Target: Eukaryotic translation initiation factor 5A
Amino acid sequence: MSDDDHDYTIENADAGASLEIPTEAGTIKKGGYMNIKGRPCKVLSISVSKTGKHGHAKCNFETVDIFNGKKIMDMVPSSHGTTVPIVNKSEWEIADIQEDDFLSLFDEGGGQKDDVKLPTYPADLAKSIKEAWNEGERTVMVTVQEAMGMEEIVDFKIVND
Model:
């Protein structure tokens, strides 16, 4: 039998970057990020309790969800594992705003994105973006934040050419 008689299939697997990084709770810093209940959060403050009867100091985290602004509290023993989301921000130029509030966006390299909707948080951000866009004759840039497979517009600016 020759090699031609066999049907070999080589499947490609994407190396795919992880959405989060495992870490010890005690290494997380104020201003950093952590996942709480599967949501990416920014750490507002940390207080550490003394070692207790069961031998672990506990970290009390006060955080805010980076996509909806809700405050979330969590307590984790400092030596126990938790995860930190990988958060990326990128700048995009608005090409169009559809009636269903989806945006057509372009980056500097000519890449296109049509699956981002106007933000729901904070409440006035979407209105401000629409007003800036409707004034015309100006370039409106938005900042898209991505973490844990979610993405949302978190800021915008007007660029006068």
Q: What stands out?
A: Residues 123-134 form the longest helix (12 residues).
